[in-house]
Specification:
Layout lengths: L1 E7 L2 H8 L6 E5 L6 E2 L6 E2 L5 E2 L1 E2 L5 H12 L1 E6 L5 H14 L7 E2 L7 H9 L6 H28 L8 H19 L4 E11 L8 E5 L6 H11 L4 E13 L7 H12 L3 H13 L15 H15 L37 H16 L5 E12 L5 E11 L31 E13 L8 H11 L7 H10 L3 E6 L2 E11 L2 E11 L2 E7 L1 H13 L1 H4 L1 H15 L5 H21 L8 E6 L6 E7 L2 E6 L8 E4 L11 H6 L5 E6 L2 E8 L2 E6 L2 E4 L11 H19 L3 E2 L6 E6 L2 E6 L2 E4 L11 H10 L3
Parallel strand pairs: 1-2, 1-7, 7-8
Antiparallel strand pairs: 3-6, 4-5, 9-10, 9-14, 10-13, 11-12, 11-14, 12-13, 14-16, 15-18, 16-17, 19-20, 20-21, 21-22, 23-24, 24-25, 25-26, 27-28, 28-29, 29-30
Helix pairs in contact: 3-5, 5-16, 5-17, 6-13, 6-14, 8-12, 9-11, 9-13
């Protein structure tokens, strides 16, 4: 009989831990959860106090059998799943399935996979914490109830094959609300005025910029102001210099790591969590599911040593951040390197980048603040009340900025201070070298990216940071949301420049509206959201969803039972489901009338069809309607009549080639160009609505050349004219007397002899 069996969730984690324990310990993996709620029916006995019905999935039965046999032959079983509620639930399921006494089985937890942490955990085992297990059970049961009962309602009332979830649906609501803000937004122009000044008595004429504190709505107002500047005198009304400090950000939590990795490294939330998991399992970082910003005394000491070694004593400070989140995850440290003195690691490029980010953030949190000088100069103008303002910021001591600076989600903010400004005093005269009024435009709210959505979900208390990755993945996979990038559009703008006593006007162009990896709700996502809000407003309420999380925290703390929490939720929820099923859905709410087709006088509308969002021109009595699918990025809620009518312009005639019409259209297999009986698929980047004649000809010629090559034999034989080696759609083959024979893999068709061809034919399957 072996002495000790240690069970963890992942093989990588098992491999790492095995290095730290002696020969008396065998470490095995459960490969995640070993059982879950039964997939058949609901998997919950509602009439028996919401008793869950668990089953072992077929792909886990072999693992379970192996673990059960090993447990029976082991003196002591140690359960070493992750240090969070889900990990606790995995440990409890193992006790149940393997027949281990829950109050006697040794449960060990650690927040880092290091020899010290593992051995310390072995020295201080505990039993399975049923409060944490029950909190996780409550989450799983409640989410199953919501999904199981909501989804059939959507099938009946909206469209088949739809689904809903508690946190996912609320996340979609956030995106829908933002999209409607964007749709309703109307950009308006304004003029921003910036002047270049120098002190009147400065022989070097050192220039600095200052911006007018007010803005103008029209071209006429901007021009009138510039004219008022001709011959005006400019005087310093106030020159203020103040010291300031900038403090480092705390070490990473799950949420802030997801956000910063998205902003700095361009990683998705799911990619960040996957890479972090690999780093943790290799023993390189502490546990990556945590709400805590706390660092251990040992980590603080190591950070101090590292900072002094790299930058000197004056850069070091000892500061332990306090976690403000009530009910924070049980892992009691922030995400940090397991060994602070290890600045770089071996691994994939993504692992190296994420580790570097974690290392810098951790060490920077223990560095002194940056010392700044902030200067503000207010400039009066004769003959008017307007004032110019110049701001400057100079770093006197870089502090933590020498190592790391936190990024932000605000990509639309204009540049701040100029840097160093010349020394000036109240009453100093200034000369305006140039004053420029530039046309700008108000900007719509930005669509969420993954980082900003995570930030907003956390602010609202919706879900757990550890659930954000699967939440975002789920709403994208369901087709409720798309993650896409958009090229910017050209936009003209005007610039007026006053130099001396002359005003010059320029017409310029700029790119606007460019987006990268932004989340946009689809039409079906918006329809589902609207229906759920109408019928299940309490479930879709942000406060309700946040309060559910607080209830889970109370269960984890032992304040309430999970059965009571589920019971209080289910009664009102089930009543809402029954009411929704009995309520007639207003289908017109899913249809938008766009206007009238000028060619026919018939109604044009946008709606959700059997195959997705589309536009329709109603047919006359006895005639069929005409339909067209929406383009990628178009929404029922925002498409215009003109854009809808353009969708009916296909198939369109793009010209004549050798007496034959070139037609462009969209078919079963996508957009195409047709020339007689020849069809050529449009390539990526080709738009069927705008493709040129020249490009259409290019595609047809390429298709003709490809077809000709396919019909030209690779090889023929004078002795056997009927036998040909050809290149077909699915590769080379032998054609002989009306039949085709596949050429065996590895044979070069152009090198086949007549005898070899005959042999292939003779031995081919009849």
């Amino acid at each position: 009989m072996q002495e000790n069996l240690v069970i963890v969730e992942s093989p990588a984690k098992a491999k790492t831990i095995e290095k730290f324990l002696g020969k008396d310990y065998v470490v095995k993996s459960s490969f995640g959860h070993i059982r879950d709620l039964a997939k058949k029916d609901l998997g919950i006995n509602i009439g028996e106090g919401f008793k869950p019905v668990y089953e072992i999935p077929s792909d886990k039965k072999k693992v379970v059998d192996e673990l059960r046999k090993m447990a029976q032959k082991t003196q002591t079983v140690w359960l070493a799943s992750d240090e969070d509620r889900e990990g606790e639930a995995i440990a409890w399921h193992l006790t149940e399935v393997l027949g281990l006494p829950v109050d006697q089985t040794k449960r060990i937890v650690f927040h880092e996979i290091t020899k010290r942490a593992i051995l310390d955990a072995i020295e201080h085992p505990r039993t399975v914490n049923m409060n944490l297990v029950n909190a996780q059970q409550a989450r799983r049961i409640l989410d199953r109830l919501v999904g199981f009962e909501l989804s059939p309602v959507l099938w009946k009332k909206v469209r088949p094959s739809l689904s809903a979830g508690r946190v996912q649906s609320v996340a979609v609501r956030l995106l829908v609300e933002r999209e409607r803000e964007i749709i309703a937004f109307r950009s308006t122009p304004y003029y921003r005025v910036v002047a270049q000044f120098h002190a009147a008595d400065d022989p070097d004429k050192t220039l600095f910029k200052a911006e007018l504190s007010s803005r103008f709505e029209t071209h006429e107002e901007a021009e009138a102001f510039l004219r008022s500047c001709i011959g005006a005198t400019f005087t310093v009304a106030k020159a203020e210099e103040k010291p300031a400090q900038r403090f480092p950000a705390p070490p990473f939590t799950t949420s802030t790591l997801q956000q910063e990795a998205g902003r700095k490294l361009g990683m998705s939330v799911s990619q960040t969590m996957s890479v972090a998991q690999h780093l943790y399992e290799q023993g390189l970082i502490t546990y990556m599911r945590t709400d805590s910003v706390n660092l251990s005394q040992q980590a603080l000491a190591q950070c101090k040593e590292e900072v002094i070694k790299l930058y000197g004593e004056k850069y070091s400070r000892w500061y332990n951040y306090k976690t403000k989140t009530k009910g924070a995850q049980e892992a009691h440290e922030a995400i940090r390197p397991s060994y602070i003195d290890r600045q770089t690691i071996e691994g994939t490029p993504a692992e190296k980048k994420l580790y570097d980010l974690i290392w810098k953030r951790t060490v920077a949190s223990q560095m002194v603040c940056a010392e700044l000088d902030r200067t503000t100069i207010v400039i009066d103008m004769s003959g008017g009340k307007q004032q110019f303002v110049a701001t400057g910021e100079v770093i006197r001591f870089d502090g933590f900025l020498r190592l790391y600076s936190e990024s932000t989600d605000d990509e639309q903010s204009e540049q701040g201070g100029e840097g160093i400004l010349p020394k000036m005093a109240k009453g100093d005269r200034l000369e305006a070298e140039q004053i420029t009024a530039t046309e700008r435009f108000t900007q719509a709210p930005a669509r969420y990216n993954e980082a900003s959505l995570v930030k907003r979900l956390e602010e609202l208390g919706i879900g757990r940071p550890s659930t954000y990755a699967p939440t975002i993945t789920t709403i994208i996979n369901r087709g409720y949301v798309v993650k896409q990038s958009k090229e910017g559009q050209k936009r003209p703008y005007t610039q007026l420049t006053l130099t001396g006593d002359r005003i010059a006007e320029k017409s310029l162009t700029e790119n606007f509206g460019k987006e990268k990896n932004r989340l946009q709700p689809t039409d079906i996502g918006m329809v589902v959201n609207d229906y759920l809000e109408a019928q299940f407003s309490p479930i879709m309420d942000y406060n309700f969803t946040a309060n559910v999380e607080k209830e889970f925290d109370r269960i984890a703390e032992g304040d309430i039972t999970w059965e009571k929490m589920i019971e209080e939720f289910y009664g009102p929820f089930h009543q809402m489901v029954d009411k929704a099923i009995g309520t007639q859905t207003d289908k017109t709410g899913m249809t938008r009338i766009l206007g009238t087709d000028p060619a026919t006088g018939h109604v044009v509308k946008a709606r959700i069809g059997r195959y997705g969002p589309m536009v329709e021109i109603e047919g006359a009595e006895g005639e069929k309607s005409r339909y067209a699918s929406l383009k990628k990025g178009q929404l029922i809620e925002s498409i215009t009549l003109e854009e809808a009518l353009e969708l009916f312009s296909l198939p369109r005639n793009v010209g004549v080639l050798d007496g034959e019409t070139l037609m462009v259209g969209i078919g079963k297999y996508g957009p195409y160009v047709r020339y007689g009986k020849t069809f050529a698929s449009l390539q990526k980047g080709d738009d069927p609505y705008t493709i040129s004649y020249e490009r259409a000809v290019e595609l047809i010629r390429a298709q003709q050349a490809s077809a000709a090559a396919a019909h030209t034999p690779l090889k023929s034989f004078d002795e056997e004219p009927e036998l040909l080696v050809k290149n077909g759609r699915y590769g080379p083959y032998i054609a002989y007397k009306g039949k085709n024979y596949r050429i065996p893999k590895g044979r070069k068709p152009e090198e086949l002899t007549l005898e070899e061809c005959r042999d292939i034919i003779a031995h081919s399957k009849k």
